[in-house]
Structure formats: C-alpha cells, structure tokens
Amino acid sequence: KQDDGPKVNDPRLLPDMFLQRTAKVVYILEKKHSRAATGFIKLLADKNSELFRRCAMFSPVDHRVPRAYVSLADCPPDFVTRPEDYSNMLFICRIVDWKEDSNFATGQLAKSLGQAGEIEPETEGILTEYGVDFSDFSPEALECLPQSLPWVISPGEMAKRRDLR
C-alpha cells in the first residue's frame, strides 16, 4: 500500500505551531544602547592570576548588561588595598569591546556616582544608561519662562485646556 500523505520529515509541510524559528545575526546596522551601565566594582576571585594584577570586575545593576573587566588604572587609587570601601559605591562603566572568545566584555570606568541607595546617584545612573541629557537649561531657555513668580495659568487659558490632574 502506497502512502501519498504529507512527509513528516519535510518542515515546509508542518503547521507553524510545530516550528521553532531560528536566525543568525550577520551584521549590526546601528547600535542603539548607550553601552553605559551603572554597577559595582570588585576584585577578581583568583588572586594568583595575571588578570588579577591588571583588572577588576564590573558587575552592572541591570542583569541584561554583561559583566566587564575594567583596568585597575581606571579604578580609585586605593581600591586594591581597600576594596571593601567601594563595595557599596556606584560607578558608570562604558563597554568598549567584547571579544568573541571571552565570557566578559571589556569596559572603562567613566565616573563614580556615589553610594548605592541614595536618590541622586541612582537617578544619575539611570539617566546616563538611557542617554538622557540631564544638564542644566541654558540661560536662553530659562529667559522664555515667566519671570514674575508665583506664576498661575489665567482662567481664560484654563478653560481652553483639559485638566489631567
């Protein structure tokens, strides 16, 4: 008896719900991420390795960003002798490279933000990660604002607006 039904080995004949789509990245057209991350630095675990004498480990707060090796030259001068002083200090690290054969990216410390858990350093870290310009407004922009304070919206203008409070 000859079976003329669909061949199970031919994936084109299977319904889409049975297929697992796969792909391969061949080229990155545009890098969207700022490649900056907020996190902590710590000494490497293997004290006898050559890498221990040259690098520290940067661990980002955001788990989606890879850990990175940063040069000890970028770290604070007393970091190697007193790493516990920096265990709760937030830093900004920029990822500069990530070799194919390495588990960790290579980063460069850009800035020390301050103690973790405080509003100012945490806010600055988030804004820097997402590329938000948080510098002060220019004098030209500030001149456009009403100078007589306290300023209130006139009743006529308020009638034209939709109150979303």
TrEMBL record:
Domain of life from the UniProt record: Eukaryota
Subcellular location, principal: cytoplasm
Classification via InterPro entries: Dis3_CSD2, NA-bd_OB-fold, RNR_Ribonuclease
Short name of any one Pfam family annotated for the protein: OB_Dis3
Entry keyword Aminoacyl-tRNA synthetase: no
GO CC terms, sorted: P-body
Domain CSD2: 56-131
Protein name per the record: DIS3-like exonuclease 2
Source organism of this protein record: Gavia stellata
